[in-house]
């Protein structure tokens, strides 16, 4: 698809006009406090991977409402002290898969926690291991509309709480209180990285590639690509639920999390991406750190001829270089 959104010059200045919901901070404070009422590490078991350079553990940590969330904890066998921890979140429909699939961060010398996405893992990759025990009223196929009639019941309230608790779990597993913690992900994972970066004020850096769930009100006006098509399908049936659904999505809008960011941010955007339209990504990027007391470093990689894959492996190398520079200055 050709570039379909605003020109790049306009994107760099674009701001969301969506309302921030009343009670946003209180909603998330209650959610995270309730999740943190549970001991974070539920189970930790070493696994044999056939790899000689890393050690891996199969972990269960307490996420939303204490629900057990699966994760892989992988540590370089010859790791430098205080190298840092990368907490990684997954894209839409993907589960944590097998422990040898994602070795980038441990190969770069970081301890790595890969969080499973509750209820997902049946659309891509090699599956997931975390159930979502919460039932919801009628919804469209997928996850975005599950519980969309109430912010307290919305699927992404649970998943964002899991993402915050993954940071707590990584710190507990790492055992070094002052080690840097980085949150990272692409697409849905990028959305969770923005959320964790906004809700956990002392993370050291945020890597958010082509983030989903930013500026939903605009996304629904300019694209019907999946997963936004789920909301379109739902509202085509529940015609009187538009205001309620949009109000719920405001509570998980990446723009609202971005305003609360404190850590340096490295983001990316594909200018032909219909899944995460450029203006929605820039809306979050341009809002990053608005509520901070001082200026917050941020950088975005723009890929004019790419779709939702963004910069792919080229972008990964840029992330590695950027992160080394940021953590090297701590």
From TrEMBL:
Pfam families: AXE1. The active site is at 187 (nucleophile), 273 (charge relay system), 308 (charge relay system). GO terms for biological process: polysaccharide metabolic process. One of its GO terms (molecular function) is carboxylic ester hydrolase activity. Residues 1-324 form the Acetyl xylan esterase domain. Substrate binds at residue 92. It comes from the Bacteria. Gene3D superfamilies: alpha/beta hydrolase. This is Acetylxylan esterase.
């Amino acid at each position: 698809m050709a570039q379909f959104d605003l020109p790049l010059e306009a994107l760099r200045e674009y701001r969301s006009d969506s309302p921030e919901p009343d009670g946003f901070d209180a909603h998330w404070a209650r959610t995270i406090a309730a999740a943190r009422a549970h001991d974070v590490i539920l189970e930790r078991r070493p696994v044999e991977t056939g790899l000689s350079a890393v050690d891996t553990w199969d972990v269960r940590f307490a996420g939303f409402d204490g629900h057990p969330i699966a994760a892989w904890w992988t540590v370089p066998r010859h790791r430098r002290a205080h190298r840092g921890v990368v907490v990684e979140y997954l894209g839409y429909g993907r589960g944590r898969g097998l422990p040898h699939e994602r070795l980038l961060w441990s190969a770069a010398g970081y301890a790595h926690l890969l969080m499973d996405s509750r209820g997902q893992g049946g659309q891509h990759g090699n599956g997931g291991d975390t159930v979502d025990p919460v039932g919801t009223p009628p919804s469209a196929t997928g996850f975005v509309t599950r519980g969309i009639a109430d912010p307290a019941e919305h699927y992404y309230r649970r998943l964002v709480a899991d993402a915050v608790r993954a940071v707590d779990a990584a710190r507990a597993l790492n055992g070094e209180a002052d080690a840097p913690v980085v949150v990272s992900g692409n697409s849905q994972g990028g959305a969770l990285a923005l959320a964790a970066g906004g809700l956990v004020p002392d993370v050291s850096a945020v890597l958010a590639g082509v983030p989903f769930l930013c500026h939903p009100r605009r996304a629904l006006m300019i694209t019907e690509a999946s997963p936004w098509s789920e909301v379109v399908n739902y509202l085509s049936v529940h015609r009187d639920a538009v205001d309620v659904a949009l109000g719920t999505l405001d509570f998980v809008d990446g723009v609202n999390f971005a305003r609360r960011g404190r850590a340096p941010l490295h983001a990316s955007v594909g200018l032909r991406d219909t899944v995460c339209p450029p203006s929605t990504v820039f809306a979050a990027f341009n809002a990053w750190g608005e509520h901070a007391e001082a200026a917050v470093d941020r950088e975005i990689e723009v890929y004019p001829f790419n779709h939702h894959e963004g910069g792919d492996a080229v972008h990964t190398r840029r992330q590695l270089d950027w992160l080394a520079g940021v953590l090297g200055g701590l």
